[in-house]
Amino acid sequence: KNIRNPPKMVEITMSAVVTLMRKKIKDWRQMQKLLGSNDFIRSILRFNTNKIKAKTCKKIIKKYISMEDFTFEKVNKASKVAGSLAIWVTAQVKFAHSKGTVLPKQKCVEKLISMDMETIQLMYTKEVSLIKSRINEMKKDIINEVNKIEELKKELKEKQKMVEELKGILN
Known about the structure:
There is one protein chain. By secondary structure, the chain is mainly alpha-helical. 80% of the residues lie in helices and 0% in strands. The chain has helices spanning 8-20, 28-36, 40-45, 54-65, 72-78, 80-114, 117-170. α1 (8-20) runs parallel beside α6, α4 (54-65) packs antiparallel against α6 (80-114) and α5 runs antiparallel to α6. The model has no long low-confidence stretch (mean pLDDT 90).
């Protein structure tokens, strides 16, 4: 917070932090004020990962986390505090992102668990019936296509026979 011109990775890491926290910081002076404020550490410790929007996750992954140099080792060389914050940002985003994929699956499992076996059986019996119905339709379509092929073969043989007869007549 006392550096006039911070190392590039410190500035990038802090930019990721304020993006995650949805704070509007325009320059390094404002960043220094934020870092020096009494509630900065408290806001990091009390940060609610559940409020991270998917759009924010994507932005941080694309703009910061996907950077080759955005690693604990490289950021930590520039600043121990920034190194820890780089880990924090990455962990927050990964947790929020995984929550977005796990939560719907968890709800589905909970729904299935809350159902009685009869309801589950009925649900899957209907699904199996639909699949069987589609298979039967496909079988009928295949039989129709095979019949068409047989008709075409028969017609071809008749045409070949006619060609042979015409060859005999012409010779």
